[in-house]
Amino acid sequence: MRSFEQEISKIAAVGMKPGMEVIRELLRQLGNPQENTAVIHVAGTNGKGSVCAMLERCLREAGFRTGMYTSPHMMYYNERFLINGEMISEEDLLNLLSDVEIAVRGTEKALGERPKEFEILTAMAFLWFSRQNVDLLILETGMGGRFDATNVCDTPLLSIITSISMDHENYLGNTLTLIAGEKAGIIKAGSSLVTSCDAAEALAVLRQEFKAVQKGAPGEAPGARMLLVKDLCEWETKSLGLAGQEVTLKTPLRTYEGLFLPKPGEYQCANLACAILAWELLAGDHSPLPAGKERLNEESLRKGLAALSWPCRLEQVRESPAVVLDGSHNPDGIRQLAIWLSGERDRYDRVILVMGMLEDKDRLSATAQLDGLVSRVIITKPLSDRAGHWEDLARGFRRIAEDQVEFIEDCHQALRQAIALAGENDLVLCTGSLYLVGELRKNWKEKDLF
């Protein structure tokens, strides 16, 4: 049977080129399906996927028919296209690609340029969610924002920008100011912005962009607001170990006592605050929702959060020894992981780290965060052409004896070795690349890993 991966590789152009002309033409060829769906647009360096997942699950609990488009996928392309939490079938995915292929040819004829893979996937998403008549589409940017293929929605219900830190510098710029400028590209006239960004230089860019963009908003539209998590929210959290955490979160409107969030890590509280501020905007007097704001009650919020599932984000996949997969893949993500690990370290006798990271990431900054928190390291190779000299990752671990560091290229074998070395009260932590943890989770049954 033909695979989707094989089929899209035949159609898509290779590489990456900034600009919106190709995606707009591709969507025009399809009848501009992006205009048929109410969108909540989410960007940021880290946390945007978690915010998408939280909002989607709560909105679904409130009775909305939800669509969610995220990237990259952990295991299967189908994960990018969710309706009410259910992945698109392989048959529907292939048929959708066939429909869009006609528009791909039309775009190439019109512009002399073939769309790239992400442009094709994004066009497929808009077409799929339009055909499926979702009430709300939670839309995650791929990278950046201003020139991201998802940034074709000129009137989103609202925009969300999570934390901003250094990542993808080759494409977005080598300073926080430049990166923030790209993320700020999703801000639209007449639409409110919720942000958990707390880096001063990045936040200054977001404020400036928001003010400039709103000058073009229609005078009769309700005033768009910029809501800052760092100014408006406070929280206290009680760790429940790998089961998650209990959070009491205060916003200007109310205090939510004892929310259960089945995701560990205090850093998730900023993501939670982002989602709840967005929820309150949607439920408020000037709600941008076309209908149904009365459904957004606290009961739906609590039930949705408690039922949250978001794989490979501090996800426990085995109990004894404990095995955790975490998709942290840049220095700031690893820093947040290290903060969580330092708080939980006393629960475990040893921590055995299985780590693989792409060569175009700042590996030394990332590994420095974990150095001293782990007992043993197994360096492995992520399944990506960008893995490069994957063994160089070991240079960042200076506080671990040489005989406690080993190299196993095959990631499945690396995890087997870690589990074999671990005692019942040890933690096996796998991190460093989405490609790594996605591959391990995808094949955990087939490879008999967990």
- The number of E-state strands comes to 17
Shape: globular
Low-confidence stretches: none
How would you sum up the major sheet?
A: 8 strands, mixed
Rounded mean pLDDT score: 93
Outline:
The protein has 450 residues and is of the alpha/beta class. It contains 15 helices and 17 strands.
Structure, explained:
The protein is α/β, with parallel strands linked by helices. Helix 3 crosses helix 11.
Which properties best describe this structure?
450 residues, alpha/beta, eight-stranded mixed sheet, six-stranded mixed sheet, 15 helices, 17 strands, globular
Q: What is the secondary structure topology, with strand pairs?
A:
Blueprint lengths: L3 H8 L9 H9 L9 E5 L4 H14 L4 E4 L11 E3 L2 E2 L2 H22 L5 H15 L4 E5 L17 E4 L7 H4 L3 H8 L8 E4 L4 H15 L11 E3 H4 L1 E6 L5 E6 L4 E7 L6 H16 L14 H9 L8 E4 L3 E4 L5 H14 L6 E5 L7 H8 L5 E4 L25 E3 L3 H11 L5 E5 L2 H9 L8
Parallel strand pairs: 1-5, 1-6, 2-5, 6-7, 7-8, 13-17, 14-15, 14-17, 15-16
Antiparallel strand pairs: 2-3, 3-4, 9-10, 10-11, 12-13
Helix pairs in contact: 1-4, 2-4, 2-5, 3-10, 3-11, 4-5, 7-8, 12-13
